Amino acid sequence: MTHPFIENYAQNTHVKAEPDVLKSALPKTRVGILGGGTAGATIAIRLAALGIHTTVFEKKKSLIDGPPMCHLHAGGNLYREIPDEDCIDLLKQCIDILRLYPYTIDVRPTVFAVPKRDDDSPDDLLPRLNKITNAYKELVEQDPNNQVLGEPANYYQLYSYEQMIALSHKDQIAEPKTLDEWMIPVAKHLNLNKIKYPLIVAQEYGWNIFRLSASAQLALAQYEHANVLTSTEVKQVSQVNSSNDKTQSPTWQIEYQNAQSNATQTTEVDYLINACGFQTGIVDDMVGIDTKRMVEFKASYITHWQGAGGQIPEIIIYGNRGTPEGMAQLTPYPDGYFQIHGMTNAITLFNDGLVETSGNSAQPQLPSKYLEYISEGWDETALKARSQKAIDFVAEFVPAFNNANTQNNALFGGQQIPGEDDTLRVADVSLYSHISYARAENVKASSTLIAADEIVAEFTKLGFVSGEPNINNHRNNHQWAYLEQNCNEDISKIAQVLAKERGFPVAMANINNGINKTT
Questions:
Q1: From residue 357, how far is each of 161, 284, 297, 338 by CA, in Å?
Q2: 23 phi and psi, to 5 degrees?
Q3: What are the DSSP calls for 266-321, one per residue?
Q4: What is the pLDDT tens value at each position of the chain, 519 positions in all?
Q5: Angle at Cα 245 formed by Cα 241 and Cα 251, nearest 5°?
Q6: Which residues lie across from 417 on neighbouring strands?
Q7: Burial 493-518 (b: 16+ CB within 10 A, else e)
Q8: Domains of the chain by range and CATH?
Q9: Alpha carbon distances (Å) from 54 to 282, 369, 433, 452
Q10: What is the 3-class SS of 177-232, one letter each residue?
């Protein structure tokens, strides 16, 4: 069953809209997607829009309720250690995913500061920023609708110490419109003597997980061919016809159980997609796939601070990951709520939180306490202690933030990393054509639409989808059915229900500046 509120809302408010391309899929094509995170939900939308009978199995009560996310990495500027090419890939992916989920974005700039204690210089980042700017300009020239991050020429801007001092004397604007207005609260609250110059400001926006969940669930509610089973645990998958006849692809039997029933049920699908996030290895073991991967448990913390004086950009203080001086990330939400990442082992990272495959299993084994956190909730004492450390960590550079309050909640979970490189930030999907199986392995949520495209290409090759040239017009032009049926207010109503249901402040389901309003 789907989330009751969303199901009722979709039925009572809108008529399901099936696009003309449904005839392009074979009527008997059935796909099972294990996992309803960002990858599973996005792939389901892509397939259902083609008329493919798609069933999503999700253990939690609603879709996209996973590891911490808050930032649209449209340029990858958080990651100084990754190649420039990966940053450009992240830019492309983020623009693409933003056009699928436009109501999930909070439009505000991100400030990137290199502290004086750091060995690097802000000038080291300028060649990369210029490459990203040129790549953005080219994307806009290819399709003007790609201009969702503001003018390409304004993708990033630099501020000197003198400019920041001058801005610190100006009156703060409650609802900033210009970049200078956005930078006034930064000039007032950031310790300007602890950072190197120039200060970098880029158009990397906020990404709201509650609104993403609401958008995906409303999108899937538009398609008769999409079936979403939440509160449902998959017990086993097995091949049905694995004969030696190479002309016949195997099908899969899925055994599953709903939380409200003691009985197990089975269904059969023509293609199986593993989108189980950090638990993809469990399904790989069922299928018989031997692969290497890592899993990392991470957390970010929710705090409340009334001293910002209005809207404020996201603030990033660079640092070396895993050291006591790791990166600090202060992400704003409406009504004074902030999400904090501190990339140290005392805050966001954990000494024993990164594990890799070993032995005969494709599933890395997280310590049991982290699995209990994910399934049962966090230990309050440990949560409060780490939340306070996060506040103290940010207050070193934003002294007034010392008055922030902990909120006894966090966004946390396990993140999969394909292979054996824990710095990997760009990955999408692995395909196993001979057994009708695919595994989504997205490190960043922005790559999920690219993963869906690769699966559609696979389906075209297998004959599940027609190869007609216009089959992907809706995808290429981002003409998604739910965007015609729903608006920002619809997303807000459902996101607020989800935030409350998950134990977060309702204000965190809202945004200050929507992408449609600002563009």
A1: 48, 12, 15, 35
A2: -70, -10
A3: EEEESEEEE--GGGHHHHHHHHT----EEEEEEEEEEEE---S-S---EEEE---T
A4: 556 666 666 655 554 555 444 445 555 689 999 999 999 999 999 999 999 999 999 999 999 998 778 999 999 888 888 899 989 999 999 999 999 999 999 999 999 999 999 999 999 999 999 999 999 999 999 999 999 999 999 999 999 999 999 999 999 998 999 999 999 999 999 999 999 999 999 999 999 999 999 999 999 999 999 999 999 999 999 999 755 555 567 899 999 999 988 899 999 999 999 999 999 999 999 999 998 889 999 999 999 999 999 999 999 999 999 999 999 999 999 999 999 999 999 999 999 999 999 888 999 999 999 999 998 888 889 999 999 999 999 999 999 999 999 998 999 999 888 876 656 445 578 999 999 999 998 777 888 999 999 999 999 998 888 888 788 999 999 999 999 988 999 999 999 999 999 999 999 999 999 986 544
A5: 25
A6: 294
A7: bbbbbbbeebebbbebbbbbbbbeee
A8: 27-66+210-291+422-501 (3.50.50.60), 103-205+293-418 (3.30.9.10)
A9: 21, 34, 18, 13
A10: CCHHHHHHHHHHHCCCCCECCCEEEECCCEECHHHHHHHHHHHHCCCCCEEEECCE
51: left (phi over 0), alpha (psi -120 to 50) or beta: left
Tokens of 193: 């003597």
115: DSSP letter: B
CA distance 239 to 228: 22
Token digits of residue 265: 């049920």
CA distance 38 to 416: 13
